[in-house]
Write a structure and sequence with these properties.
Aminopeptidase, about 140 residues, alpha+beta
Length: about 140
């Protein structure tokens, strides 16, 4: 698996991947997701990186650093056909590495409730709730080495 920065020409493809991954849960319709802009990337592509297998993008993550706040994973989406194959875990490890290199001692994520167990298995713990487009999401944090 190759991890690399996202490219500007991949913006639409990453939005489509995000839509496919979100629709795979079966909680929302395509129309609802498009109406609230959920296919948009959380930040500029300079903050995103992709996972490739044999030249095919199989997932991506976005790491956002805001002044005076912990770095936060704002996007982590995997092609549904690649779920449970380690792609998400590898992208999350890369986000942790990037955050640590930038000097962070903790990493946060507002988790989709369905993904909370995944984040817990990666060492995150719930520290509160935050409002998102669908209601409230667990706010999770991990202490970095």
């Amino acid at each position: 698996m190759l991890l690399r920065p996202a490219k500007e020409e991949e913006r639409e493809a990453l939005g489509d991947l995000k839509l496919r991954a979100t629709l795979a849960w079966g909680d929302h319709t395509r129309e609802t997701l498009l109406a609230i802009g959920s296919t948009e990337l959380a930040a500029g592509l300079e903050a995103s990186f992709v996972a490739e297998i044999d030249g095919r993008i199989v997932g991506f993550a976005t790491l956002v650093t805001k002044p005076d706040l912990e770095p936060e994973v704002e996007d982590l989406f995997i092609e549904p056909s690649e779920w449970r194959k380690g792609v998400g875990r590898r992208l999350l490890q890369e986000a942790e590495r990037r955050a640590a290199v930038a000097g962070a001692s903790r990493l946060r994520v507002a988790a989709n409730p369905r993904a909370q167990a995944f984040y817990e298995s990666c060492g995150f713990r719930e520290i509160g709730k935050v409002r998102d487009s669908f209601g409230f999401a667990p706010l999770m944090q991990k202490q970095l080495s």
